[in-house]
Amino acid sequence: MSSTRRYFLRNSALAMVGVGTAPLWLKRALYAADAPTPRKKILVAIFQRGAADGLNIVVPHGEKAYYNLRPTISIPRPGAAAGALDLDGFFGLHPSLAPLQPLFAQGHLAIVDAVGSPDPTRSHFDAQDYMESGTPGLKATTSGWMNRALPHEQGKVSPVRAVALGPTLPRAMRGDEPAISLASIGGFQVKDQMAAKQFEQMYEGAKDASLAATGRETFEAVSMLQSIQKQPYAPANGADYPKGRLGDSLRQIAQLIKSDVGLEMAFADVPGWDHHVNEVGQRADQGQLANLLRDYGQAIAAFWQDMGDRMADVSLVTMSEFGRTAHENGNRGTDHGHANCMFVMGGDVKGGKVYGKWPGLEKEHLYENRDLALTTDFRDVLGELVARHLGNPTLNGVFPGYSPKFLGLV
Amino acid sequence: MRKRTWAALTCAAFLSATMAASAYAGKKSADEARQFFKEIPKEQRIEHALNRLTFGPRPGDAEQVRAIGLKQWIDQQLHPERIAENPVLLEKLKLLDTLNLSSAELVRNYPTPQMIKQMVSGQMPFPNDPQKRMLIEKLVARYEKRQQAGGDAAALPPGAPAPEELRQVLTQDEIRSLRAGTPQERVQAFEALPADKQIDVISALPQGVRQALFVAAPPELRRKLELAGGPAQVIQRDLTEAKLLRAVYSNRQLEEVLDDFWFNHFNVFLDKGADRYLVTDYERDAIRPHVLGKFRDLLEATAKSPAMLFYLDNWQSVGPNAPQGRGKNRSRGLNENYGRELMELHTLGVDGGYTQKDVTEVARCFTGWTINQPQRGGQFVFNPRLHDNGEKTVLGVKIPAGGGISDGEKVLDIVAHHPATARFISRELAQRFVADDPPQALIDAMAATFTKTRGDIREVLKTMFNSKEFWSVGAYRSKMKSPLELVASAVRATGGNVDFAFPLANQIAQLGEPLYRKIEPTGYSNSSKEWNNSAGLLARMNFALQLAGNKMQGVKVDKPAEGIALGSPEFQKR
Question: Are A308 and A258 in contact (CB under 8 A)?
Fold first, then answer.
């Protein structure tokens, strides 16, 4: 996103509600921190960076070829020691995802399998970029799908409607609409009040339009979050977030949602899924993948528990840039592959089902003779959530050049 | 109903906004392109050069460059071996003794808790340095004591030692004096202890007391305190401290900027297993000697470095038809990780025209490029028993069967001298040194030099520094500083004196760029966009106030009033 364009759009948005190049106090009023914020629908996206091994996460235990392709790193059939947790007689969850099994059984969690980006790249960087821009194969796209999916609002909008947890703003969140990155709620402030005022003015007048825009967004968000910074946060319903990045992120997203500051879109990511070597330990519930999944399952389940009936407004979706080779490689790991799985959880989600057409793992069904083939475009899943959950009908703006086909997830 | 009106309204708003914006964007990019033809005024040239070839100007730097002459100064920076190094830096680096050790020596002298366990059980030798041996022996004694008590071995070190350990060596008064008073008083109390007791005390001190002593401790004591906190951690501390100290103090600034650039280009992740012991050697012996040399040499140094072989898993890759691949170890086979990243990230670039087939073929060529005992800090070795000796075709070039180690070397020849590599490397350099979206004409000129000189990095840089684009309005102050650049430039601008640098390194991590800890092989982005966001801006402002207020441990600055300036939008740019 070119900075001047962003600045321009912000101003033109103001122009359209008749404020023109508004003086500072008027803009303040427009983004007033004390504005009442009616409850909105919220979308939470989790990115598993490094290409998670979907075939060992949602295990096709009913498929003989799966066990042939992975003689030393497959997840055993349900019932065996450290075996998969059966979902529907054909698929099962990795044993470290036990906290998610009841959510699936109760119909709150849906899984989409053989899903991903149709672009053939096996580059982490490009594939993440495409999945975050929402335009596979198109490098020129400057903004991210989450930013474009924010409903265009007239009048007052919350400065914290779009928040990414972490020290930088991910590609998916960049674009015309204000979006902030936040390392921690408590730390989101200038620690010296006097200096804060000076900085605010300096950034307001910055020559660099993109820094001025970021500065403005930042200080608006700071004043919005001030009231909730001092209150200690206690998760509800005995929810126990695991220590670590994803648990911290989801706990803070829950806090933001429950404090009604106007959050609509949240993003968290968790690195480390690129398991070329020793993916699985001595047992299927040990080792690198199992450890990551244990955290992942606990964090998502804790979020569900903590949110309680607020989950009625929330959908959570997970993704990873591509899947991994159907066969294991020479080092008890897997190399870069193609299709993967996605999880969708929420109050209005029609869960308890594995969605998507299963292409099979026999040689002739594999993509380029090596990877799980793709039968569902990731934009079908995200598009449905944007349109039906968030209620933003302008999908061609979110996924230009593509018409998502809804699966009936919500 | 509500939904429909809303949709109509937003649709109209969105359309008019995007239409206006795209017309605007078209005009804007033409405007932007023109900026690269406009020369900056003469009086801005020195400042610009200092912002791009160094980690930011110090007071007096501009005058010095003027005295030498800008052209001569750039030429000097391109030949760091002709510049006398800053004695202050050399003195500070002397203390960080892990920097000069081989990987094997690091393993032996800076063991992890697990290795200390192995030393106890006799599977691993003790350190050869008597000082370290003594400390390790203390750690071992504590470990054994805990084993007897049925304690958790994993908690050693760091862990809170039982207070009776301290009471065994010191009187109540002595303990009190270490726990109370100013840091200086505590250090005095410590140094007043009999020399033979000191080492016992250090290893028995609780973490908090050790930390409090640290702040005021003289350098030698600081080292001992660090070691007692966990020997293995000293290595990464030294690496990050050295990077910062060099960025702040080195007279060979361009070399330091390039060291950062090339390390990041050939990124490895310190926390991946054995890499914690291999990165020191990697930066010192694979990256640094070649930052202004021939690209082919740099590439081979990384390809044969244990750090890269371990990070991208090639050390484990075995040819499917290799002698050992057929034996009882049949589960071992090909690993594509290095082959792919070599082409995508190190040389050709993702659009460089290679296929999945090329990835597999390159991986076959590199089978057998492995490490002799990686967990013991071993060296590169070619193991023919792991090598796939069949014929391969890489990017259309046939590599005949039976080539052994030369297969991989041929691949390096092919990719290092490929036109896509000339363009890719030139673009990366231009993005770091000139502008986020460098003009194509500049990239073409640099790529032509790259090709003509067979990848002479110094010559490519000369082409860039001599280009009109480098000295243009489009380039001037257009880049946002990375966290490392920001922190180093702030210390330089305020004439800061760095006593120890790891609190500064922690700052850089909080700003989003943990040094040596980018987990992905891409390294950090060279684009400004990466750093322009709210969490980063707030952290930058808080850092500025802390540094200028002399509240940052390990650094003293001359100009404490400048916090606001250091946090300003102007200071975030270079």
Answer: no
